[in-house]
Design a protein that fits this description.
With 283 residues, the chain is an alpha+beta fold. The chain is built from 11 helices and 9 strands.
């Protein structure tokens, strides 16, 4: 380490946040020039970040922001729960959600992280993800994002569950104001727990329905049921499937004696669910 002082290492470390040994190594390689050492550390950091980007992320945080008639939800993932509790990581997720809610992203379109960070106005967040990987030492990924805008006859409620591992947004039609938002939040809490696939049976993708129907058909035949009644039995089981997977047909978690649709009718007459989005870390 001849010619490289402890003060030079400290100065470089203060400016870059890199580890002491990396700072020493960089300064040695460039003959003590701090600016060149900074460039070298950035190159090393980008290379390490690229490798980290291949590692699995099963922890993280969902963040929701509402402002000026819009609500946005983003999910950002990490490798460990320790990083998910890191203030810098949490601040990043919050700022990203704030950027999404203030953007002109298509209403209701769920974007992957790659799609979001490729949109104009989000370039700085893409660079920041790389910097976070380098500084924190883990793979950091923006997973998904969605933005809802509401009119005069709608209300969005949101809910974060389990320390932000699950986030839900629900939009109701036929109501507005704080009371409707509170009601939407009640439904969002239900969605967090019950994981519906769609609002109504028609909202469940056809390919998902057909896959379920095929499985039920094979199960029914395996039970030895006569072929002439297999279709009838399968249709009955599909009705049960829709009751379990369609939000408005599900038993309401706070009162299983009524469906979600019945709960809404009892609370606010003609109010119904227009749409919902549910993000869960690790999905």
């Amino acid at each position: 380490m001849a010619g490289i002082t402890a003060q030079a290492v400290k100065s470089l470390r203060d400016r870059t946040g890199a580890g002491m040994m990396d700072c020493k190594k960089a300064l040695l390689e460039v003959g003590g020039d701090e600016e060149q050492a900074i460039d070298l550390l950035r190159q090393w950091g980008a290379a390490k970040a690229a490798k980290r980007a291949e590692r699995e992320t099963s922890e993280g945080l969902v963040e929701i922001v509402a402002r000026d008639g819009a609500t946005a939800m983003v999910s950002v993932s990490s490798e460990t729960d320790f990083v998910a509790r890191n203030k810098e990581f949490q601040d990043f997720a919050k700022r990203l959600a704030e950027a999404v809610v203030g953007s002109d992203l298509s209403d209701g379109e769920i974007l992957s992280g790659e799609e979001l960070l490729g949109r104009p106005g989000f370039e700085s967040f893409a660079a920041e993800v790389t910097d976070l990987r380098s500084k924190i030492g883990e793979n950091i990924q923006v997973h998904r994002a969605v933005r809802y805008t509401t009119g005069d006859e709608g209300a969005v409620g949101s809910y974060l569950h389990f320390g932000g591992r699950i986030g839900v947004m629900v939009e109701l039609l036929g109501g507005s104001g704080e009371a409707a938002q509170d009601l939407a939040r009640e439904v969002a809490m239900h969605v967090a727990a019950s994981r519906p696939v769609g609002v109504r049976p028609d909202d469940i993708p056809e390919e998902v329905q057909e896959r379920e129907r095929a499985v039920l058909t094979e199960q029914t035949r395996a039970e030895g049921k006569p072929e002439q009644i297999v279709d009838k039995i399968v249709e009955g089981r599909m009705r049960k499937y829709f009751e379990q997977q369609s939000l408005l047909m599900q038993a309401f978690v706070k009162d299983p004696d009524q469906t979600v649709a019945e709960f809404l009718s009892a609370q606010a007459g003609d109010v119904t669910v227009r749409r919902f989005a549910r993000f869960e870390i690790g999905e």
